[in-house]
Amino acid sequence: MMGLEDIYENAKRKDIQNKTGPQTQSHAQDEDKDQKRSGSRCLVLMTVSLWLICVLLLVFIILQNITITAERDLIKSYKNTVEEFNQTINSLQGNYTDLMIEKHQLQNNFSFISHKKLELETRVKDVTAEKDQLQRSVEFLSQKKLELETKVTSLSEELKEEASKQGWFFMSNELKSWSDSRKYCRDRGADLVIINSEEKQNITITAERDLIKSYKNTVEEFNQTINSLQGNYTDLMNEKHQLQNNFSSLSQKKLELETRVKDLTAEKDQLQRNVDVLNQKKLELETGVTSLSSFFMSEERSWSESRQYCKDHGADLVIIKSEKKQRNISSFTKERVWIGLSDIHQEGNMKWVDNSPLNLGFWLKGEPNGQGGNEDCIELMPSHPVLNNWNDFLCSEKRKGICEK
């Protein structure tokens, strides 16, 4: 019985299959085609998606590389500027040292010339005193000579008068004509000599010679004395003039040295001021480089995500509380970035990430405006003026953040 039932059931199943077979097979083929088409579309979509992801990843890597390169170039530029300032300062220091050496040399020369000038002044004073003494001696001797000449004349007159009284001879002191000479003699109770013997001739000649010789000797002695004094006086005058010329030359040299020292002092002071200014700029640049080296950028994220990125790297979003730092940060980036300021916890109550209040802001005109309480996070926009480039914005927007260690 069981065998017959099975055979019957199988025959019935085959009959049913023969009736419905063509329709079922056609439907199955359609389903296979739909599945193949659906699989192809998925494969294309997956390929396009992967390609887009690769492109976006490549763009992100390029942008990240550009940002890093720009940051490196900026720091390198600062370092190059610092090195240039160091070279300039070293050059100025060298010039300053050379000027100081020249100044000390000029001061030594000035001291030497001042000492020499003092010696010359003393020498001129001594020579002037000697000259005055010689002048007084010349005047005294000239007076003495005049007195002696007067005395000689007086004695000669007395001698002549005495000689005329005793039949002696005397001579006139001046050259006269024969008539004037006779009158001169007769006025004195005498007359021109009468020579009527050889003895009288000899006496006359001898007396005349002795008198003339006496006059000559006296005059020669006085002339020698006067000439000697005059020579000494002339020598002293020449020495005085030479000393005066030397004194004038040294005075001019001293004046030139004083002017040079004054100019060098002014130049040294100016160089010192330049060195001080450059040192200050160098310090500022070094501080800027050191400061910039403590900053780094996050990827483009929301404000909260950027802050978390900074904190994950041992930092936090930057806090700006001075104009100097505002300028440094603005020069650090060329794109809009998040800073560590927000009023997330209380609308209108701006606080930094260290929970300190905002005391100094660098807002764009009309900012912060809140936009209905939706803009709670602050971005810095370096394309605007450096002291007016803060803007409140939606915290969910994607921006890079500046992290500060």
TrEMBL record:
Polar residues: compositionally biased ranges: 18-27
Stretches that traverse the bilayer: 43-63
Keyword Transmembrane helix attributed: yes
Pfam hit, one: Lectin_C
Gene3D superfamilies in the record: 1.20.5.340, arf6 gtpase in complex with a specific effector, jip4, Mannose-Binding Protein A, subunit A
Segments of this protein annotated with the region Disordered: 13-34
Gene Ontology molecular functions: carbohydrate binding
Coiled-coil regions listed in the entry: 75-165, 212-288
Species of the source: Labeo rohita (Indian major carp)
Name of the protein in its database record: CD209 antigen-like protein
SMART domains given in the database record: CLECT
Keywords for the protein's UniProt record, in alphabetical order: Coiled coil, Lectin, Membrane, Transmembrane, Transmembrane helix
Superkingdom of origin organism: Eukaryota
Domain C-type lectin: residue ranges: 295-404
